[in-house]
Amino acid sequence: MFRNLRKDIGTIFERDPAAKSVPEIVLCYPGFHAVLIYRISHWFWGRGMCLAGRFISHVGRFLTGVEIHPGAVIGSAFFIDHGMGVVIGETAEVGNNVTIYHGVTLGGTTWKKGKRHPTIGNNVVIGTGAKVLGPVKIGDNARIGANSVVISDTPPNSVVVGIPGKVVFRVEGEKRIALDKEFMPDPQGRAITSLLDRVTRLEERLNRLGEPAGEDKRDV
């Protein structure tokens, strides 16, 4: 548990340029507090002390605004940025080196017992307000866009956006998607550029035919 907490602190330094010192992270980062409380509650849960685990988790929810069920399995180097409104269900599984932002839900879609929450791979980033619902699998190195609703499996090395979430970009092989905004794929931008190029070509064709756009060719 303490080894994972050291990795969690190191991860915050790597991914949040606003972090200045370890005391600042320990005292002022609600995302770190939520992960710390989760790891304590999970320790109790894993040893059969379920009531203690749930109570500690409940206190953590009150203090941080983040609700992580103690039964969830979360790997190392886990970072919750800002944190408020995050919900992670009982049977959720989260890999290593995962980042999620405020308002994210890893939720279920059924009242039946058993596996009902998502499995998140390694090196995944889940944007603000995104909802990943049901026992779906999110592949390694995937990025889920803000406010997306994901209800089906996501392949590795892909970008998912929309409601319902759809893969709009995918990198083949072992190459990872860059997480810096200026290097991120922009499918909407590419679509708009393509439409503008088509309009330009059509206008040029009309001009060559000597028929300006909008002219009524019917005889009066």
Question: Which key phrases capture this entry?
Answer:
35% helix, 5 helices, six-stranded mixed sheet, 220 residues, alpha/beta, single chain, five-stranded parallel sheet
The radius of gyration is: 23 Å
- Per DSSP, the total helix count is 5
What coarse outline follows from CA principal-axis ratios? Answer: elongated
Q: Largest sheet at a glance?
A: 6 strands, mixed
Strand content: 15-25%
Could you list the spans in which at least 5 consecutive residues all have pLDDT below 50?
none
Instruction: Provide the residue-averaged pLDDT.
Output: 82
Distance between the termini: 85 Å
How would you spell out the order of helices and strands? HHHHEEEEEEEEEEEEEEEH
**Helical coverage, percent range:** 25-40%
Structural class: alpha/beta
How many β-strand runs? 15
What does this structure look like?
The protein is an alpha/beta fold and 220 residues long. Helices cover 35% and strands 18% of the residues. It has helices spanning 2-15, 22-28, 30-46, 50-64, 187-209; strands at 67-68, 73-74, 79-81, 87-88, 93-94, 99-101, 105-107, 119-120, 125-126, 131-133, 137-138, 143-144, 149-150, 158-161, 166-170. A six-stranded mixed β-sheet has the order 3-6-9-12-14-15. A hairpin with a 4-residue loop joins β14 and β15. α1 runs antiparallel to α3 and α3 (30-46) packs antiparallel against α4 (50-64). The mean pLDDT is 82.
